[in-house]
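Hey, quick one: can you model this chain's 3D structure?
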Amino acid sequence: MTIIELIERKRDGGGLTGEEIRWIITEYTAGSIPDYQMSALLMAIFLRGFNERELAVWTEAMMHSGDVLDFSHLPTAKVDKHSTGGVGDKVSIPLAPIVAACGLVVPMMSGRGLGHTGGTLDKLESIPGFRARLDPDEFGQILERHGMVLAGQSETLVPADRLIYALRDATGTVPSIPLISSSIMSKKLAEDLDGLVLDVKVGKGAFMKHEAGARKLAETMVGIGAAHRTRVVAILTDMSQPLGTTVGNALEIHESLDVLAGNGPPDTTEIVYKLGAEMLLLGNLAQTEREARHMMRDAVDSGAAMERFSAVIEAQGGDPAALIDRSLLPAARDTRELRAPRAGFITRCDALDIGTAAVRLGAGRATKEDDVDPGVGIIVHHKVGAEVEGGEPLATVHYNDEQTLENALGLLQDAWEVAPTPPPPPSLLIGEVR
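Sure thing. Here's the predicted structure for all 434 residues.
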């Protein structure tokens, strides 16, 4: 076989055999297939898609392109969570220690922000000293000792995905359900999981703007899990407005600590408890959602969840004192308030505009090479449905540079709409796929 004839066949709507798919992934990971030919194949897949058999084999071949973790010696169920990404989505940070304090093992492998969506690792690295890069041995040791770990993808875990994602980002082939689902699921299946909960975001600030596309993506990933005998549950959640009240790395650590202390914003707290309950059910540590939520509240109220988080932060090189004395976290030098132009009700709080404004402040990346400013960001004071007075603060912008502030303010001034009548209440939880 040659890569050219396989590109042409897929381009023309034909299928690839399992042997051909495995050969493609092996040869590309080894450097034998050049980037320009893999880019052409990815575009053909983007245009023509995969059937179920092709998708299952492609995902498995990616998973086995490097190390596959083995935690079979751990007696407790291993369950992870993955979000498709959004603005203000810091859910993984309080979620992992809460469910770990309930007895679940959580090998949480997270990513960095790109574009208008934030990354869990960037947020965690705003804690002084925290290390997200762990080799497989250290990853396993921390997981065994503490029941959870918060780390990035190692160099040897699913290297095919790391290489292919970089090409997709540079060639306009990111928005493909087969390529998205295989990218996510190959990494998660390589973690030796017993179960996986997916938070599939829907709305203006999400990759999937409409419920139909989000549901299709969720169904595809649940199907991949079933093909690999891994239980997967997908929850569709709203991303038309930011989640919680903070957007920006250190600011989102503050909010995560509030959730762990039991006084986080209602929407962030609800998503944490909903996803956590599903994780405990998949791990057979609870029989009903009500029981699971009770376990989680006990872990928060007793301080066990905060203690677990502190222990893992210290194990990964971070300063646990910053979780108590929050002045040790990075902070911007200046703030500016954005005020309501008139009295009325908030009818729009645009997640995409706010997320993009945060990137312009320096909180995120336009390219993978960009540095992130951990102290800058936006505190959102009013969201959809809130009643405001004219001149009342809608948001507080935390910034370090006047030029980045000016670049962000234009977007932020258009991110809110105020109308004389209240809008219908937004739905935080949109649906689920099992």
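One thing worth noting: The first strand starts at residue 79 and ends at 83.
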